[in-house]
Amino acid sequence: MSAATLPMVPTYPRADAAAWLAVAAGALGAMMATLDISIVNSALPTIQGEIGASGTEGTWISTAYLVAEIITIPLSGWLEKVLGLRTLLLAAALLFTGFSMLCGASHSLPMMIAGRAGQGFSGGTLIPTAMTIIATRLPPPQQPIGNTLFGGTVILGPVVGPVLGGWLTENASWHYAFFINLPVGAALVMLLTVGLPHQRLRTDLLRQADWLGIAGLALGLGGLTVVLEEGEREEWFASSEIRILAIVSVIGFALLALGQLRSEKPVIRLALLRDRQFGAIAALVTVAGMVIYGTAYVIPQFLVSIAGYNALQAGEVVLFSAIPTLAMMPFTPRLVRLLDIRLAVGLGMALMAFSAWHETDISSQTAGSTFAFSQVLRGFGTMFAMAWMNQASIRSVAPELAGDASGLYNTARNLGGSLALAGIAVVQDQRIWLHSRRIEESLSANSPQVQTYMADRAQALGGMDNAYRSLSGTIQTEALVMTYVDLFWILTMIVIVLMPLVLLLRPLPKGGRMVMAH
Fold it and tell me: Among 101, 122, 369, 503, which has the highest number of CB atoms less than 10 A from its own CB?
């Protein structure tokens, strides 16, 4: 082949320091937003006690954040067009920091819920727009580095949150789980100011906005998330509040559907889900979100309630899943270029399923060290699945729709977490009762073994009443362990059932460059 017929290879200028500062700002903002989803989990009992909230009321401290964030994430693309990227992120950073201070200073439940909702609304824009910064500020050859940095922060945030929250609560005060955002927010504002150019406001877009879709998105997703989170505790449709919220959610989704039909530029393009590949990715990332958030909740609960760990020790066990993320980050950009997406995502999902299956062998004697191997496996699986699926999601749509795809992708991941937490509450309530009855039925009062056991316990504990209380506690403990086993089996089977969707993914060209959402 002559030199004249050789294909032209495009050349790109290298990113300057300001561009990398902007990328660092995006990653820092995404880390702050994802970390604050779970940072209160370890400190929740302490917070509830100090602000006078019951266990049921205290769940709103977590739910308020999740509901607000899941509404805002799909809106971030439209908000970016109206306000401009720098203005949007500066406003989000300042508001997030301000609401964090409100949470840290809270002395009542309404004050805390208001602060957490404000954190969620402002933090929800920090996650997908971090991908926008990488797409707009870095040339294609350097985007893999920024993408890996972003992917690592999103994966690490939910894992580090419980550990950091537990450490601050044990060594300082729960207030610092929120006050820590003040220096982080200040650094974020400086990085954004230096790293991003100013863009003019597009107020004309307000008149053209899909207001039906915006209202429907808020009512639909907000109502659905609350119903999922609170349904089991409120006995589902026996509660008037759940019935009202369910109706609100249905009305919201009806408005959202109407907006899809009437608006030329709907606020969120649900039509993307009709694409075979993108629909498969949305389903897979929802499942990945279920495993990530579900196991991050179940394992600490098991260690605290069964193994006698404190919140910090339980969080440290979950932190094992962060090791593969840190180990793979330097190599992920090259691996994404070389490894077929179907193979990578399939491997990631298989590792996530195997890690959940490995935890079905737990017992009341299981300690935190037993989870170390499965947590490392899950970390590798999460990194393979999420890093490659991000690429596949953007490749499945036209470049001008990449921002909409990013919003749907991140919403699906968070919705998976919400579904997991709701499902865990349902399974725990139903299966603990079932396993307790089955254990009781297996203990015959006429059995010589049972009689001997009870006589020995009565002698050791100073009376038959104490022996019966001990037996009841043992039954409840074993029933709870069996329930946790059920939960890990369910997560395993969900991943296995949806794994064939990997075959619908279209491979990236071997050695092809990475693409980014924007």
Answer: 122
How far apart are the C-alpha atoms of 234 and 247, rounded to whole Å?
16
Q: Are residues 285 and 261 in the same domain?
A: no
Residue 5 token pair:
């017929």
Determine, yes or no, domain membership for 9: no
Alpha-carbon torsion, ordered 228, 231, 237, 239, to 10 deg: -130
Q: Are 421 and 294 in contact (CB under 8 A)?
A: yes
Q: Specify whether the CB–CB gap between 117 and 106 falls below 8 A.
A: no
> Is 317 in contact with 163 (CB distance < 8 Å)?
no
Measure CA of the first residue to CA of the last residue in the chain; give whole Å.
Answer: 38
Distances (CA, A) of 329 to 251, 368, 376, 394: 43, 26, 15, 20
- 104-133: per-residue pLDDT in tens? 998 888 899 899 989 988 988 887 777 777
Between 224 and 349, name the one with better pLDDT.
349
Residues 6+ apart with CB under 8 A from 354: 377, 381
Q: 170, 188, 209: which is the final residue of a domain?
A: 209
The predicted model scores a pTM of 0.75
Q: Is the pLDDT of residue 302 over 70?
A: yes
Contact in structure between 323 and 376 (CB atoms under 8 Å): yes
Q: What is the mean pLDDT of residues 333-341?
A: 80
- Shared-domain flag, residues 433 and 322: yes
In the prediction, which pLDDT does 97 show? 94
Predicted confidence band at 254 (pLDDT cuts at 50, 70, 90)? very high
- Same domain, residue pair 133 and 31: yes
Contact 503, 332 (CB under 8 A): no
Q: How many Å apart are CA 233 and CA 120, to the nearest integer?
A: 23
Contacts 24+ apart (CB under 8 A), 49-58: 50/107, 50/174, 51/106, 51/107, 51/108, 51/109, 51/111, 51/112, 52/108, 52/109, 53/109, 53/112, 56/233, 57/109, 58/109
Q: Tell me the CATH number at 471.
A: 1.20.1250.20
Are residues 373 and 238 part of one domain? no
Asked whether residue 125 falls in the same domain as residue 217, the answer is: no
* Number of domains present in the structure of the chain: 3
Looking at the predicted structure, is the pLDDT value of residue 69 above 60? yes
Q: What is the pLDDT of residues 235-253, one digit of tens each?
A: 788 888 889 999 999 999 8
Range of the domain at 229: 210-266
187 and 173 co-located in one domain: yes
Q: Let me know if residue 5 belongs to a domain.
A: no
